[in-house]
Protein: Flagellum-specific ATP synthase
Organism: Aerophototrophica crusticola
Amino acid sequence: MIHDPDRLVAEIDALPDTRMFGRVTSVLGMMVEVGGVEKKLSVGGRCRVITRGGKPVPCEVVGFRAGRALLMPFGGLDDIGLGCQAEVAEGQAAIFPTQAWLGRVVNALGQPIDGKGPLPQGEVPMLVKANPPPAHARRRVGGKMDLGVRAINTFLTCCRGQRMGIFAGSGVGKSVLMSMLAKYTEAGVSVIGLIGERGREVQEFLEHDLGPEGLARSVVVVATSDEPPLMRRQAAYMTLTIAEYFRDLGQDVLCLMDSVTRFAMAQREIGLSAGEPPTTKGYPPTVFAELPRLLERAGPGTGQGTISGLFTVLVEGGDMEEPIADAVRGILDGHIVMERRIGERGRYPAINILRSVSRTMPGCNNEEQNALVTRARRLMASYADMEEMIRLGAYRRGSDPSVDEAIHFNPAIEGFLRQRKDERAPLETCYAELAAILGGGGAG
């Protein structure tokens, strides 16, 4: 409901003078072909197809073929047939977020799905498919950001405006790690996108993993795996759009997305349905064009606000060279690798420190802290190189002083990296704890 008379007048003035309709000429698979208005449409434009029962189904133009517009629906195709009306929608898709959206759960179209009533509407429209800020106008990344997770704070320190990937297979603990980041981060706002998530896990994540405390400072965007590919792709865009709104207010925003892989899969379904040729592992070219357009929207803005992005990537079987993982790793500012074998031995979060890197970390630490982290990594690497021999009892103490030192410190380092999901690890204490373990400096 609009209470501002000026806003009401503006809404009325924005109404189109005429309404244009085409007709459905073909339905094949997930694709609806519309004729009669193809010259009034463009790729990315919107239509509303009226079903035989009178229900409007929003659709997006994804291409053209043989003089007809190709549309994909945001809903089901039930009750849509030849001759159904297709009304052209004016303008680009936009939302009107406000601070009152914190604590709410919305779908890919920005509609509330949490049963808490309608969403308040703001004054400023935000385009759902916006372009990233121009590179020459963006600020540099800011100072350190406390994420509340000891392994990341210490060995993979993130800066405000940094973008990191979380690479892991299914069931390794990505959702729990995301909930810890959302609850314990020092960022004032978290925007969480659950893209292609299992339906049963959404409520579990909201109530059990995120909890009331985490939800109160978050906006959650949900598109489950059973929804059409256009909804899953749109949910990723919606997540970044809401994050951009809070960033433009000058706030530091933590944007969490699970997962980029399912966004890419949704784009693959859309591209193949539109007739694009499949390339690497069946992914059409638009997938690799859309990934940077999505991920580059995170980061510092042109003002004081920032979006610090953590995006999960599914790597089945630990294949880090899989096309999507390889493309995302080249776009982001670092990667966090989670491994099943680490979780199997009871250490959570199951982060492989040696395979993970934060590209901004050396520049945000002082020399003492960098030396401390380098020494700890060297000890972990020495132990990893000889781990099998140590477990088999084939290594004899005294053979290599560096390995002896690694064996001595390994239990303490493993204990340092282990963290319960209800435990917060402040950034200011992490380096001091590691220095105490290794008997060196670096607490500053």
Observations:
- The first strand starts at residue 21 and ends at 28.
